[in-house]
Amino acid sequence: MRKLLAIIISLAFTATFFGQNLPDSLYFSNAIKINFHKYKKESTLAFILGNTERGQFLFDSLVQHRLIGTTFDNLTFKKNSGSRLKLSSIEKPMLLLTYASWCVPAPGEIPALNKLARKYGKDVKMVVLFWDRKQKMKKLARKFSSRITVCYAHEYYKNDAIIVSALKHTLGFPTMYYLDENRKVVDIRRCGVYQQSSRENYSKSYALNYNAFLDGLATILVNKDVSKEHLETK
User: Fold this and answer.
1) Which is deepest, 23, 26, 182, 196, by most CB within 10 Å?
2) Domain co-membership, 114 together with 218
3) What Pfam families does this protein map onto (predicted)?
């Protein structure tokens, strides 16, 4: 009975909190602001109480009922190489991952992403955005494949305020944004499948991360069958 009541409350919350119909042309940065403080309060309370299932439910509801279908803002990122990347210049689907140098990726996470970049780099643009000063992320940036564009943004850098406000101060990190060729949001997920760093667990962690990234790529690589690419996790 108690479990049934919890389900009813959750459904009611979703209907009232996320149930607004949004225009297709609404930008991500505007959509995320609607009742966001209420979402943040509910989500923070859930994780403080150790109710990760509730926290994930709130995140998934926000994504499904509020953010999918919106247009990702035409942001401009600073590349690790020194040039700039304007999102409107990308003419294919994109995977954007947000990281920070002090947030250590899960074992096998970067190698799994690199392998997928080598396989699907011609079909999808992969971008990693570090919430850091350039100097702090340079060492970690070298671990990524040359097929992955590594960028950075920081509160203290000129013109980064919009990027930080829209992404870092809303859904935080690490987060994966899957966009189609028109910058429409197809899906948003948390990234990093945690596994202990012992040698016997590395292979499983690598496979779990590989499969997690692959499942997300399947939502934007609509003309490719990636289901056969999944790795065994035993």
Assistant:
1) 26
2) yes
3) AhpC-TSA
Q: How many residues does the chain have?
A: 234
Q: DSSP characters for 50-87?
A: T-HHHHHHHHHHHIIIIITTSBPP--EEEETTSSEEEG
> Exposed (0-12), middle (13-18) or buried (19+): which is 15, by Cβ within 10 Å?
exposed
Read off the pLDDT of residues 190-228 as tens digits, 9 standing for 90 and up. Answer: 876 655 556 668 888 899 999 999 999 999 998 777 777
Cβ neighbours around 220 below 10 Å, total: 21
| Amino acid identity, position 79 | K
Residue 177 in this model has a pLDDT that exceeds 90: yes
Residue 103 within any structural domain of the chain: yes
Q: What range does the domain containing 144 cover? A: 76-229
Structure tokens at 223: 């003309």
Q: Which residue has the tokens 């939502």?
A: 219
- Is the residue at 15 inside a domain? no
CA 78 to chain centre: 18
Instruction: CATH number of the domain at 160, please.
Output: 3.40.30.10
Q: Which backbone phi and psi does 61 adopt, to 5 degrees? A: -65, -40
Q: What is the pLDDT of residue 224?
A: 78
| Strands, E assignment, the chain | 76-79, 84-86, 94-99, 125-131, 148-153, 175-179, 185-190
- For 33-87, write each residue's pLDDT tens digit: 999 999 999 999 998 999 989 999 999 999 999 999 999 999 999 999 999 999 9
What is the pTM for the complete model shown?
Answer: 0.86
